[in-house]
Design a protein that fits this description.
Mean pLDDT: 88
Strand content: 5-15%
Radius of gyration: 17 Å
Number of helices: 2
C-alpha cells in the first residue's frame, strides 16, 4: 500500500461510521421493510428474505463502483 491509499481508507471508514450512526439512530428503520421483502412467521421459526432491500443495495454499490472506476480511468 502506498501513501495514496491512506486517505481512501479514512474516507471509507468515515462513510461506514456515518451509515452505522444512521442505522443506530433509526434513520434506516425502513430498510428491510420494503415491498418485496419476504417475512414468514411460524410458531417456532422466522424466515426473512430481503429481496428488494438487497436489490437496492446492489444498485447503490454498482453505481458507486461505476463512478469510482470512471474517476480512476482518467
Amino acid at each position: 500500500m502506498g501513501r495514496a491509499t491512506g486517505p481512501w481508507l479514512v474516507a471509507g471508514g468515515v462513510i461506514l461510521l456515518i451509515v452505522g450512526l444512521m442505522a443506530w439512530s433509526g434513520w434506516l428503520s425502513w430498510f428491510g421493510r420494503l415491498p418485496g421483502d419476504i417475512r414468514i412467521h411460524g410458531e417456532r421459526t422466522r424466515i426473512f428474505i430481503p429481496i428488494t432491500s438487497m436489490l437496492v443495495v446492489s444498485l447503490l454499490l454498482n453505481l458507486v463502483l461505476y463512478l469510482l472506476l470512471f474517476l480512476f480511468r482518467r
